[in-house]
Write a structure and sequence with these properties.
Keywords: Signal
Strand order of the largest sheet: 1-6-5-3
Helix content: 10-25%
Strand content: 25-35%
Number of helices: 5
CATH topology of the largest domain: Immunoglobulin-like
GO molecular function: calcium ion binding
CATH architecture of the largest domain: Sandwich
Radius of gyration: 37 Å
Number of strands: 19
Largest sheet: 4 strands, mixed
InterPro entries: Secre_tail, TSP_type-3_rpt
CATH class of the largest domain: Mainly Beta
Order of helices and strands: HEEHEHEEEEEHEHEEEEEEEEEE
Shape: elongated
Protein name: Secretion system C-terminal sorting domain-containing protein
Pfam family, one: Por_Secre_tail
Distance between the termini: 113 Å
Number of domains: 3
Length: 377
């Protein structure tokens, strides 16, 4: 009886030594590409070593399956494990280890594709230097909207941080405070890290230029002096767009079209420098030939006043006025009727027109002209 008992123990040990085990694989997470479509290509064979553990690869075969039933029955096999494209996100992969003697074991893990934020190419962050010492306080959070809007797809739980150097941004260390004072006078480049809050390994870094700006506006035309340096040579005295001997930084009508520079702010954002109605690449306040504003030789025949206007506008002419039409900056004709007191005096009311720039087309016997009209209601 004692001898039989020892024999059973030996058999049990031999059986365990021949057992096969599918060792667990940790869930495998990758960051999506720029498409952020949740689809990627995987090389599943990189998990073979993990699945086998310390087992001899010469005695065991590793296979990957799309279902647990497939892993059990050795069907539903992934035939292209070196270039497997997921069909769901996450997607569960079932591993199977089969021994040379026919025994098997199975396990599972998930492929996870996480949203990859995009480092946006940011516009310079400019603030007016209040005491002209080259240093100012920047509220960095005001750039968050630009970063969020620059993402390629729907934003999913991203976090944004600002750093003084690329290393800190890459390692997510030493984040700057929301209210930050530049340490390099006038211009300083900092770095922005945007990461997936749920998966911080998915991140991108971009740069942001901080500019402490001299916002002196000598002529109060809405364009600061340094923006009046049209030829970018560092001098303000040799920029005179309309050649009236008044440099732009002292000229309230830079292009000499009869409309004050400050009134050529078509989009009403307080900055005439970003208005380019005819898409010519030249700001409207520097270009007399804007949209319908190109005036013919008839221009001197007609006189329109007051301009800017808040009510009645009069057009006087030395020749009969045949027709008057009013358009907005997008070319849409306004439904405004001009009243004719005589053949050479016409008037119309701007009280119901929104504040902005308009173009008045005046047709006379010998031709037509277009005049800009500023409405300040």
């Amino acid at each position: 009886m004692k001898k039989k008992y020892c024999y059973l123990i030996v058999l049990l040990i031999l059986n365990l030594s021949n057992a096969q085990i599918a060792f667990p694989v940790p869930d495998f997470e990758v960051c999506d590409d720029l498409s952020n479509d949740g689809v990627e290509t995987f090389d599943l064979s990189i998990f073979d070593t993990t699945v086998l553990g310390n087992q001899n690869p010469n005695n065991f075969t590793v296979s990957y399956h799309l279902s647990q039933a497939g892993a059990i029955s050795n069907t539903d096999v992934i035939t292209n494990p070196n270039s497997f494209v997921n069909s769901t996100n996450p997607q569960t992969i079932y591993t199977r280890v089969t021994s040379s003697t026919g025994g098997w074991d199975q396990h599972l893990f998930d492929l996870i594709i996480s949203y990859a934020p995009v480092g946006v190419s940011l516009t310079p962050f400019e603030v007016c230097d209040s005491n002209l010492d080259g240093f100012e306080v920047f509220d960095l959070s005001t750039k968050d909207v630009e970063i969020v809007n620059g993402q390629t797809t729907g934003v999913q739980n991203i976090s944004i941080s600002y750093h003084s150097n690329l290393t800190d941004a890459s390692n997510n260390t030493n984040a700057l405070t929301q209210l930050y004072s530049n340490i390099t006078p006038n211009n300083q480049t900092i770095f922005v890290r945007v990461e997936n809050s749920s998966s911080p390994v998915c991140f991108d870094v971009s740069s942001l230029e901080l500019v402490a700006l001299d916002c002196t506006d000598s002529d109060n035309d809405g364009v600061i002096d340094i923006r009046e340096d049209v030829n970018s040579n560092g001098l303000l005295t040799d920029d005179d767009t309309d050649m009236d001997s008044i440099p732009n930084y002292l000229d309230t009508d830079d292009d000499g079209d009869g409309v004050l520079t400050i009134d050529e702010d078509y989009n009403n954002n307080g900055d005439p420098t970003d208005d380019d109605t005819d898409n010519s690449g030249i700001a409207d306040y520097l270009e007399i030939n804007v949209f319908l504003s190109l005036e013919s030789q008839e221009s001197t025949v007609f006189k329109m006043y007051p301009n800017p206007s808040k009510g009645l506008v009069y057009i006087e002419s030395i020749i009969p006025v045949l027709k008057v039409s009013i358009y907005d900056v997008k070319g849409k004709k306004l439904n405004i009727k001009a009243l004719q007191n005589s053949s050479t005096l016409v008037m119309f009311n701007t009280e119901k027109i929104k504040k902005g720039i308009y173009f008045v087309i005046i047709v006379g016997e010998n031709g037509s002209t277009a005049k800009k009209l500023v409405v300040r209601n």
